[in-house]
Design brief:
This protein is mainly α. Helices cover 66% and strands 0% of the residues.
């Protein structure tokens, strides 16, 4: 099983304790799961509180989002314990899962409620990807709306999830790979295909021309 997991001697003491507790049968494992879930809820609540107001999510809805993210992160973590390599502390590794789940759920909330605007700081990540630098505020808003429509209508659900997570919500690539499972190359390919589709849609609607610089 060396390829599936590191040995306890290779880990810091806290990480080794987490893995041992989660591997124990019965009550010991249930207690460890409860402690881990409590930690994940606390992280999710903090991240949701930081991001939620920009999408007008608050109160019970925001709290429910945090609890769902923590539950999904716990399920993902326990399903991938064998992939933990000890390159960071166990809690740091687990943190990435719950941050991704919060980001994904906020992203899905936005696409279900497109009338809720993202802040300029979110959308300003997008135009440079397509070689477009609007000079006026009206052009900027028009482009942001066009990009949003293109993301919603042109991308597959998987491409949309990856694109929104990385570009709009700022989820680190390594966190996305860790949480979704595909390799870095698979994520790169999805992002390449998504950018290609979005560029084509923007060009077809007059926002880009054939001689526009190609964004990376």
């Amino acid at each position: 099983m060396r390829e599936a997991a590191v040995s306890a001697s290779e880990l810091d003491a806290e990480s080794a304790q987490w893995l041992q507790a989660l591997a124990e049968p019965g009550a010991a494992r249930e207690a460890a799961l409860a402690r881990l879930h409590k930690l994940l809820v606390r992280i999710a609540q903090g991240e949701a509180a930081r991001r939620g107001p920009r999408l007008a999510i608050s109160g019970p809805e925001l709290d429910d989002l945090a609890y769902q993210a923590a539950a999904d992160a716990l399920l993902a973590i326990t399903g991938k314990l064998g992939q933990f390599r000890g390159e960071s502390r166990f809690t740091t590794w687990a943190y990435k899962f719950v941050i991704f789940e919060v980001s994904a759920k906020i992203g899905r909330h936005f696409w279900r409620h497109p009338a809720v605007p993202l802040g300029t700081e979110d959308w300003e990540r997008l135009p440079a990807r397509f070689g477009f630098d609007p000079a006026h505020e009206a052009e900027w808003r028009d482009l942001a709306a066009a990009v949003r429509r293109a993301v919603d209508t042109e991308l597959t659900p998987r491409q949309r999830e990856v694109f929104v997570a990385i570009v709009v919500n700022g989820v680190p690539l390594d966190t996305l790979v860790l949480s979704l499972g595909p390799s870095r190359n698979a994520i790169y390919k999805m992002m390449f295909d998504a950018r290609r589709k979005l560029r084509a849609a923007l060009a077809a609607n007059g926002y880009l021309t054939d001689d526009s610089p190609r964004g990376s």
